């Protein structure tokens, strides 16, 4: 039922001129896909008969599902899922949680995501374009100045990798 529903959405997408749909990887088993193998199988199946391609939105912090042992390396996930990945959500993580940390010197000490490595992998994509979006989430009580500084430092970290 789910696969046919997404294929139906792809027909509607094609009818209004969209070129693709996105399906985001998730960090919990109840929300598929939450593993590399699930993502591959799901995208292969749904794209058989889809009117527009269904691509992956890979969130680098979603490679840490509680049921995965060992926890996933986001770079390995990106390498394995690159043929389907049209969007990458960029967040710093320690690989143990979906933290949505910024790319600052403070979090680099704990973080495992390498902007240079992500950019290098993404450049090898068979897709014409892979979009990189910062997905940094601060607590609501974080001071505005800190949020702005963290975002500026994160943009600088990624600009340096490009």
Give short descriptive properties of this protein:
single chain, 162 residues, alpha/beta, 4-stranded parallel sheet, 6 helices
Task: List the topology elements.
Elements lengths: L1 H14 L5 E4 L11 H12 L6 E6 L14 H8 L3 E6 L14 H4 L6 H9 L7 E4 L9 H18 L1
Parallel strand pairs: 1-2, 2-3, 3-4
Helix pairs in contact: 1-2, 5-6
Textual characterization of the structure:
By secondary structure, this protein is an alpha/beta fold. Helices cover 40% and strands 12% of the residues. It has six helices and four strands. It has helices at residues 2-15, 36-47, 74-81, 105-108, 115-123, 144-161; strands at 21-24, 54-59, 85-90, 131-134. The chain has a four-stranded parallel β-sheet with strand order 1-2-3-4. Helix 2 (36-47) links the parallel strand 1 (21-24) and strand 2 (54-59). Helix 1 crosses helix 2 and helix 5 crosses helix 6 (144-161). The longest helix is centred in the last third of the chain and has 18 residues, at 144-161. The protein starts with a helix and ends with a helix. The mean pLDDT is 96.
């Amino acid at each position: 039922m789910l696969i046919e529903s997404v294929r139906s959405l792809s027909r509607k997408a094609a009818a209004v001129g969209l070129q693709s749909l996105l399906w985001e990887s998730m960090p919990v088993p109840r929300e598929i896909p939450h593993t590399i193998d699930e993502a591959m199988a799901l995208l292969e199946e749904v794209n058989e008969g889809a009117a527009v391609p269904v691509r992956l939105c890979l969130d680098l912090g979603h490679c840490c599902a509680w049921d995965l042992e060992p926890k996933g390396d986001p770079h390995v996930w990106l390498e394995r899922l690159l043929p389907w990945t049209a969007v990458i959500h960029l967040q710093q993580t320690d690989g143990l949680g979906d933290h949505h940390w910024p790319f600052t010197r403070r979090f680099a000490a704990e973080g495992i995501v390498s902007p240079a490595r992500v950019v290098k992998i993404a450049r090898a994509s068979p897709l014409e374009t892979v979009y990189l979006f910062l997905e940094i989430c601060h607590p609501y009580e974080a001071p505005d100045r800190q949020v702005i500084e963290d975002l500026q430092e994160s943009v600088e970290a990624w600009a340096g990798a490009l």
